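Pasting two entries for a bug report.
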Amino acid sequence: MTHTRRDHPDYEALRPQAVALRHAGLSRRQIRDRLNITLTDAALTHLLEGEPPPEWTKRPNAKDDLRAKARELRKQGRTYDEIVTELGVAKSSVSLWVRDLPKPRKSPEAMRQMREARWAPYREARDRAIEETKAEAFSEIGELSDRELFLLGVGLYWSEGSKSKPYQRRERVIFVNSDPGMIKVYMAWLALLGVERKHLRFSVMIHESADVAAAERYWADLVGADVSSLCKTVLKKHNPKTVRKKVGDDYHGCLVVRVLQSADLYRRIEGWWSGIVAGRSAPTATSASGMV
């Protein structure tokens, strides 16, 4: 039956026709055209109530797969930004898809990385300031005179070298240190004093758990000696309960430098140090500020 368009259609009379057209596989637009009347979307929905649309009119949601993937990533503990980067979708979409899921707890490693990233600019600025200060101080030294090296060596030995005690006189010149720079300065000081190489003996002190052979090569190269000429290495017993920080490739133990037949030299060092103490027991304000 053909209907003319009118403003107030009889919905009860139209429903059987609309349902029949739906069963025939027509879309909403096609049904509206076949009925040839003016129908709002709400009115047409009322006429077709309970009648599912035909399969051919159903359009798959292109984002269903992305939504499922986003939810799976969120359950794995991923952040919004990580999900956005991986799926290439808007952050607002991710928020809508996963907002009902619990907020993931960050792992200790993730928390550590966040702290590192937060403080990295400050550490970089601090490190630059430190390096600039050290470079400025380095430029203030210049080449040492023999007298400066002599006085420096006396102080160096008296702070780091072995010393005789009133209750146990041991007048031997023995220097032990792990700082290669300090060893170099000490060797230069001995050369300045005229101590011949044939009167020097070298040995290594190191923990038994370290690379002993590598340490021996390291110190032998530093002082220009053959590894075979080193005295027997002293191994420090390893205590597994102790958390040692001096480990890894940078750990070489200590080098022991002995001067043979050195009683007279030791007495001179003791006298030199006493002279330094007597000559300037405390720096004046003027001279101290001049070094800064």
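Entry 2 (this is the one that rendered wrong in the viewer):
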Amino acid sequence: MRQIFLALALIAAPVAAFTGFQLYANNAPAKAANLGDLSSFKAIVADVQSLASKGDLSAAAKRITDYETAWDQAETAIRPLNPNDWKNIDAASDAALKALRQSAPSADKVNRTLAALMAVLNHPTQSAQ
């Protein structure tokens, strides 16, 4: 009889431990995946900000096209890593593109949207406001 209880205990203990871990792991908050190295995007946006702050909105609009091209080309690699963070950056990107490509862009609005884009590139979990 003692052998049966010992066998049950030796089986039940690992099963209980494994089940407890699985329950914990499934309920633990998942860490957001990193989007990888965004430094090339930040460098382009910094260039655009520099041009815009000097009042050269035409050159800034041309330079942001380099950002847009690079961002679009990287979408298939970056987006699956964290769709929510990617969406935050993409929305801020669209706002900056729109501000620069207006027929008569407002320097103030351009600078605000570029600052918001850089902020989201630095902290993708936060959406642009």
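Dev reply: Rendering is fixed now. As a check, the viewer should reflect this: Residues 19 and 25 are 10 Å apart (CA to CA).
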